[in-house]
Design goal:
Layout lengths: L4 H7 L4 H11 L14 E2 L7 E11 L8 H16 L5 E7 L9 E3 L1 H9 L2 E6 L2 E2 L10 E4 L1 E2 L7 E5 L3 E3 L2 E3 L4 E5 L2 E5 L1 H4 L2 H19 L6 H11 L4
Parallel strand pairs: 2-3, 3-5, 4-6, 5-7, 6-8
Antiparallel strand pairs: 1-7, 2-9, 2-12, 10-11, 12-13
């Protein structure tokens, strides 16, 4: 399912915790599912939030691929072809399947960051590693398990498959929101409801935060402010 650019641009104005808060109001079950639950390193924490459709795959780096050179080349081209397909913009969610050795070799660096940005990707979420921190594509966000110096034997294994990265399970085409805090999957059926929930949250928070900024703020004023938010719907 594709959403219009206006909605994606609206969602990108907010940080990922705000999106999580809004989803909780839509469905309480989102309190315990649909977001990263393991820490990732945000390589470029000053970049704004990114929103896009998931391009999923798996990689391995410990040992060479068992495919022939020709098969490996075909698989690599197929990956780039997949990333270039609509819907766009995209966010790559790439699972390193090397278990405890995940991140042994970096798929992500100067070349792949530029290539994927050129193909419409806003960034990557991976439990694997990245490198070339100072030479990566400008504006391309990276949430990664680690930073490592070598690419080792890294290669694409599967394309457009179900993946799990840092506790977040993702399918190809899922709508993803990410920033320095981590990532959350926005169910397509919930995406259209988020705007009104974010606006509701803002009105409630303004009552409490506004009171907290005034001289003489204390627990009694806080208590009254909390009660006032109960009438905001």
């Amino acid at each position: 399912m594709n959403h219009d650019d206006a909605l994606l641009n609206f969602l990108a104005q907010f940080d990922t915790p705000t999106i999580c808060n809004a989803l909780e109001l839509i469905d309480p079950s989102y309190r315990t599912t649909g977001f990263t639950t393991e820490p990732l390193q945000c390589i470029y924490p000053d970049l704004p939030s990114i929103v896009g459709y998931a391009k999923t795959g798996t990689v391995s780096a410990i040992a060479p691929s068992k495919k022939s050179a020709a098969e490996q080349l075909e698989n690599r081209i197929n990956w780039y072809k997949y990333v270039d397909q609509n819907p766009k913009p995209s966010i790559v969610v790439l699972q390193d399947i090397d278990g405890e050795r995940a991140g042994f070799g970096a798929f992500w660096g100067e070349v792949n960051s530029h290539v994927h940005r050129g193909l419409g990707a806003k960034g990557v979420i991976t439990n694997g590693s990245i490198r070339d921190i100072q030479m990566n594509a400008t504006g391309f966000q990276m949430l990664a398990g680690s930073v490592m110096p070598s690419h080792a034997h890294v290669h694409i294994v599967d394309i457009a498959c179900d993946v799990t990265v840092a506790g977040l399970s993702v399918q190809s085409g899922d709508l993803i929101h990410a920033d320095r805090h981590g990532a959350v999957m926005i169910p397509h059926e919930a995406a259209m409801k988020i705007k009104e929930k974010i606006e509701l949250i803002a009105r409630k928070e303004e009552v409490i935060i506004g009171a907290a900024k005034k001289p003489g703020f204390n627990w009694e004023i806080l208590s009254e402010s909390i009660k006032k938010t109960l009438d905001i719907h």
